[in-house]
Amino acid sequence: MTALLRIEDLSVDFHTDGGVVHAVENVDLSVEPGEIRGLVGESGSGKSVTSLSVLGLLGSGRARISSGRILFRGENLLEKDQRGMRKIRGGHIGLVSQNALSALDPSFTIGAQLVEVIRLHQNVDAKTARRAALDALELVALPDAVRRMKAYPHELSGGQRQRVVIAIALACRPELLLADEPTTALDATVQKQILDLLLDINRELGTAILIVTHDFGVVAHVCSEVTVMRHGRIVETGTRADILERPQHPYTQGLMNAVPKLRLSAAERAIPRSSRRLFEFSHDSISEGGKSNVSA
Ligand SMILES: Nc1ncnc2c1ncn2[C@@H]1O[C@H](COP(=O)(O)OP(=O)(O)OP(=O)(O)O)[C@@H](O)[C@H]1O
């Protein structure tokens, strides 16, 4: 199968007053059409820099991509100009960020923000854009969508705001959603609802999702494939079963062992009973894959 997204040998440096920081080194990562891949690792491991590179959002300041290609549908995104990247962002790759409050503009209604994104990417009249905006809100199961179109971000709960962010990301039916810690800012019950929504979207629309997370609860709940990062490098790649049940790399084993008991309990409470077994490393509810691919 041709990968939807293929990152090849990506290296990113930051040139700071204190010297050069090798934030991402020789990273290879693929997302196949329709799959949900988790990119997991501790803070500072290079997850966000990798995902910002995909979106062309590293900024022109101190960051430098020193090697690699980022192929999306076969095209190298690193060769695209700003205009080309604006078409990709929102049009073909939707972004769901951690903080819905900062992702939304406080001075515009939800409807206006959705309509703006749709009209930016699609050559449609205002009425068609409004209909598409409403469809997007219904897709993310925001209750009372017609009334919510006129609401401002501060009038919604945290979970509702994150649904709106997902609606905006999906409004143009992108092939890939890039979700950077999509549930970190939410409480456990709402986290589960948002993760279930991402699963529904994946199943119903076939949208591939790359989830950046430090949380194995998120991985266990939604990811079919997992890539583990440490110090800017990929240390292990495998199916969810490989990584959760049979981690090969000592770093992944350590991360799994370090998931505190209390934290596990919170995560267990946040996911359906049928999936809780994942945390007990049982075999029957998860796909059996080959051995994971481990780097030194
Ligand atoms: N603007 C910047 N200037 C200098 N160094 C940076 C900058 N942004 C990131 N880095 C460095 O790049 C490395 C990777 O950071 P990155 O934000 O990708 O990690 P992360 O795994 O996403 O962690 P977190 O979950 O905390 O965001 C870290 O060493 C970080 O300090």
Kindly list the characteristics that best describe this protein.
13 helices, globular, Rossmann fold, binds adenosine-5'-triphosphate, ABC_transporter-like_ATP-bd, 41% helix, four-stranded antiparallel β-sheet, 296 residues, seven-stranded mixed β-sheet
Structural category: alpha/beta
What's the CATH superfamily, by name? P-loop containing nucleotide triphosphate hydrolases
The coarse silhouette is: globular
Question: Mind summarizing the main beta sheet?
Answer: 7 strands, mixed
The number of helical segments is: 13
Global Rg:
19 Å
Low-confidence stretches: 272-291
What is the count of distinct domains?
Answer: 1
Task: Summarize, please.
By secondary structure, the protein is an alpha/beta fold. The chain is 41% helix and 24% strand. The chain has a single domain, classed as 3-Layer(aba) Sandwich (Rossmann fold), CATH 3.40.50.
How is this structure best described in words?
- It comes from Rhodococcoides yunnanense.
- Its main location: membrane.
- Residues 5-256 form the ABC transporter domain.
- This is ABC transporter ATP-binding protein.
- The protein has helices at residues 47-55, 82-91, 100-103, 110-121, 126-139, 145-148, 158-170, 188-205, 216-222, 240-245, 250-258, 261-270, 273-276; strands spanning 5-16, 19-31, 36-40, 63-72, 75-76, 93-96, 176-180, 208-213, 225-230, 233-239, 293-294.
- By secondary structure, the chain is an alpha/beta fold.
- It has a single domain, classed as Rossmann fold, CATH 3.40.50.
- The strands form two sheets. The protein has a seven-stranded mixed β-sheet with strand order 6-7-8-3-9-10-11, with helices on both faces. A four-stranded antiparallel β-sheet has the order 2-1-4-5, covered by helices on one side.
- The longest helix has 18 residues, at 188-205.
- The radius of gyration is 19 Å and the shape is globular.
